[in-house]
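Handout, page 2. Input:
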Amino acid sequence: MIIRHEEPSDVCEIRKIVEAAFPTPAEARLVEQLRSDGDAVISMVAVQSGIIVGHVMLSKMDAPFRALGLGPVAVAPDRQRKGIGGSLVRSALKEAEKEGWQGVFVLGDPNLYQKFGFDPALASGFTSPYAGPHLMALSFNRPLPVATGIIDYAPAFAALG
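Output:
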């Protein structure tokens, strides 16, 4: 498997993967809106035998330090539970750290995302429409530059409801 940055020619295949991985096309529209708004910072694909089988995106966040939001992460249904999603997340986080981002937020299952270093306690001091036990943060240089403040995902996330 190869994990690489998204290329313009990948857009249609990414949409198919994201639509197949989620119950509605809302996340596929989110990916496209983040891209068109210029809020997508890191967008990577997993390729097996020349076929795109997964996608991950990190987008700009409104935060009191340089932060990104993780998501969506999508893997073709017939390739799920084989480590592709985890490899995508690790690769995207490595790229974010290399690019000098200070932290990443994610909204999701703590049992899943804690294995990548996300911690609900790191996010607990931040005010957000998404605040709660499923909002987690990861710091590349613990601790985060600040432990409190207002954060929000890119505007395109508001359409998810």
